[in-house]
Amino acid sequence: MTHEQKALLLETAYTQSLRLQQLVGDLLDMARVQAGALALRLQLVDIKDLISTVLGRMKDSLKQFQVHVDIPSPLPELFLDFVLIMKVCTNIIDNAITYSPITKELTLAVVIKDSFAEIHFSDRGIGIPPCDLKRVFDAF
Length: 140
Fold this sequence. Notes:
With 140 residues, this protein is of the alpha+beta class. The protein has helices spanning 3-35, 47-57, 82-99, and strands at 42-45, 66-70, 78-81, 105-113, 116-123. The strands form two sheets. A three-stranded mixed β-sheet has the order 2-4-5, covered by helices on one side.
């Protein structure tokens, strides 16, 4: 095995170990939420800062993607838990990265409806089979 092959294997193992660590952390957080042991740290957040932080942390993973961001202006600050929403956004984007075909395009849009804000994510991935849609938010 060449030095380059060994380096690639080590890099892959390291990357996958980080993904596993994130998954275990997410599972622990989910268990804490279900047990009522995870307190939300609600604060006023600029959604542009949130999206910018998420995309900045994922810039290496998104190198091959064309990312479109649509955030209306002016947009009031939102009352949310920055860290938890950042984890949710990161997981959704990571899923899009994993299941996107050759057309690597990702769109994030913030939509205001009444007094609520929604973050919409769209990609060109394979999607969820219709038979599985009803189970998307089931644990495990």
